[in-house]
């Protein structure tokens, strides 16, 4: 979709300008309701700049905030917008505390934020509807034909045909020696010799070539024809016999490469961003929370049962490299620490049950994060015995060790926490761990952290 790249950039700028305008309107309206005047005082003019700047920065973490095209589902657009507002509110609240902006009216801030959410949300809905209307009109349709009638051609046709918002209009297949029994026989407009004339007569915009890439002369001929007649020529190679799932194709200099697994953390920039956040977050916890809770938890652990305050255990980390994982001790000293905790486990103390329920037993793992053995968010590090067992019976189990393990993870906040005595429970946990790897984003980490805190507050039935 590179031909739309400049459109997306232009679209992003226009929507950012619209958002800032709506934020300014929200400030004016809120000031009118609160103080009966449209003119903002000096401190609110300054705060408006901060408000808009934070929105620009936060929205930059998700390129899809400023996308209104049909390539992204409405649910995904709405989810991205909600995530942006949540992140914006958190950052803005931090700025208010850091810069000690106590003179600002809390009621005015509430009016302003509610107005901003409403105005930007309504503007997106209106834009989505206008875009949908435009893309379904005749003037917006891109006419295309498909060369070939094989599996790749059929899959491409079904994909484009079921997404009306793309604004495309299918004009037919072209292929030699098509069998009468082919389900798409009636949509075949001719053979390869008739393709060029048909494209010129019907003003075709795009040609999708799905045949095997063995006929170089045919591909070169169609490429030249497309260039001479202002038609986009796109090659859709059929890798169905080799790859059975979604892949990523990219170029290293001029060499095409295919990655059979999407993994955003393959990019060094994403890994650096995640590591910087891990260091900053773990330092905040270690410097400001750990010193307060450590004496209380340590005293409670020591009073109830004999033994050390901390529990240390080898766990498999990234690429199965073993590291020492730290926790507050929640069990009585025993010799069966490689056995997973179960419901009503007699080894768990009363203090330990509370620590497990509230996730406070994992507080020392922020030192693991600081040392680089763990991340704040990632697949939970299982026992060594579980690695040895499940890697033999669950196909994708080892994949979860491609990334650094985390204190909390996507599987845990999705309901797959605690005991995994049944195979399907571990399979679901692995499934969500792989989903996390393939769909990682900074906003996804923020969402998981928020859900983890929320679950700590409300409590989890599987936390024992």
From the alpha-carbon coordinates, what is the Rg to the nearest angstrom? 28 Å
- Please work out how many helical segments DSSP would assign: 14
Derived from helix and strand composition plus strand pairing, the structural class reads alpha/beta
Q: How much β-strand is present in the residues?
A: 5-15%
Number of strand elements: 11
User: Biggest sheet: strands, sense, closure?
Assistant: 5 strands, parallel
The dominant shape is flat
Mean pLDDT figure: 83
Percent range for helical residues? Answer: 40-55%
The arrangement of helices and strands along the chain is: HHHHEHEEHEHEEEHEEHHEHEHHH
Please list the strands of the largest sheet in the order they lie side by side: 3-2-1-4-5
Distance between the termini: 48 Å
| Contiguous runs where pLDDT drops below 50 for at least 5 residues | 1-8
Keywords: Membrane, Transferase, Transmembrane, Transmembrane helix
GO molecular function: undecaprenyl-phosphate glucose phosphotransferase activity
Domain Bacterial sugar transferase: 274-457
EC number: 2.7.8.31
Which descriptors would you attach to this protein?
3 domains; flat; 464 residues; 11 strands; Undecaprenyl-phosphate glucose phosphotransferase; 14 helices; single chain; 51% helix; Rossmann fold; disordered N terminus; five-stranded parallel sheet; alpha/beta
